[in-house]
What we know:
ABC_transporter-like_ATP-bd; disordered C terminus; cell membrane; four-stranded antiparallel β-sheet; nucleotide-binding; 12 helices; binds adenosine-5'-triphosphate; about 25% strand; alpha/beta; about 45% helix; translocase; ABC transporter ATP-binding protein
Amino acid sequence: MSSIPQPLFEISGLHTGITKPENGRCLLQDVSFHIDQGETVAVVGESGCGKSTLALSIMGLLEAPLGIQSGRIRLQDRDLLQISKKEMKRVRGTEIAIVFQDPMSAFHPMIPLGAQLMECLKTGDRRVRISRCLDMLDRVGLPDPGKQMKSYSFELSGGMLQRVMIAMALLNGPKLLIADEPTTALDVTVQASILRLLKDIQQEFGMGMLFISHDLGVVSELADRIVVMRQGQVVEYGEASCLLDNPTHPYTRHLLEMVPVLGRSLPAKVLTYDQHVLQTEVVEAI
Ligand SMILES: Nc1ncnc2c1ncn2[C@@H]1O[C@H](COP(=O)(O)OP(=O)(O)OP(=O)(O)O)[C@@H](O)[C@H]1O
């Protein structure tokens, strides 16, 4: 008898909310979805629907008065809600890594970027760790990685710094990468090159990716499946192509209408994306 393969990552029946009894409020209600190895699942919804609360719930980084009320978050065969804080700290950054929206605030301005990257690789010979950081900076397309290791965050552009954050997230070979609005703070011409980079490295490294965005147009570029969230609840969930071609929930249709140029025609968006990439490469080459 063949057993059903286990997903890489699975959330089931997740409820997250304000835990104070006097003003208890549910911010995520019964959220469930899974991510298979090598797959990109996008969570999309407007501001305030609970996307960041979801990312923080997964990373075990919710701060009081927010807390998980019930549900399960599994990475392979482990329930992340049942492991110790110490073990969760190890999982974070090694097995699950996150790329945040604003690269400028993710780095310490007074510490060289190289030292901050090295800090993520806690073990191993110093020379091996330096070489690993240099390799990863090169892999994410940063010119002159040796120079960037000595630079401070304020010396790099937003796009370059986002590449450093992606390199940092990949250093320990995570099984799951969470990208929380990774292109929102960037210039439109740089956005497309960062999206292409995420797509490339996800294929190369074969990890699962949870891509969080308010923009269904951006999501259509790289998602295998899409979770549409509204007011803390999943209103639609399915294969990206089916959901984009035949949205069943009025809110998904509303999000689609907000995508400029795309409307409901994907090929037009793909064309727009390629034009952005071309434009970006021209800008970067100047
Ligand atoms: N510490 C907190 N205390 C009370 N309410 C909170 C707290 N953090 C978030 N919320 C509320 O939870 C809801 C979801 O917020 P969240 O930041 O997860 O949304 P989001 O979809 O990520 O929005 P955005 O795209 O603007 O970042 C919002 O109504 C927000 O006001």
